[in-house]
Amino acid sequence: QVQLVESGGGLVQAGGSLRLSCAASGRAFSSYVMGWFRQAPGKEREFVAAITRSGGSTFYADSVKGRFTISRDNAKNTVYLEMNSLKAEDTAVYFCAARSSITIPTIRVGALYEYWGQGTQVTVSS
What we know:
Elements: E1 2-7, E2 10-13, E3 18-26, E4 33-39, E5 46-51, E6 58-60, E7 68-73, E8 78-83, E9 92-99, E10 115-116, E11 120-125
Parallel strand pairs: 2-11
Antiparallel strand pairs: 1-3, 3-8, 4-5, 4-9, 5-6, 7-8, 9-10, 9-11
């Protein structure tokens, strides 16, 4: 089992940047595929980004591609989401998640992630 704790959210103006962190504890962090998801008020949770166990491959939603970067530091048991050129529509609660299995075609499917953090609020003012 793994416990996940997000941090780094806050209020930022449109065009600004934020860096989210997700610290993991428990079983070997490097054995998990890690993902970031978000949920805006009144909307369903959506995939944002994911990274494979070694960090060798990354995946992004089209809406954030070119603006967001996911990375991980297995020595620090931490995954990051660097968010640049933020837009009002990026406002949401951001969650990190972990899964032990990986099939690339399903890496965007939130229901297949076994462990979730409590979320961190990101608010972008226009």
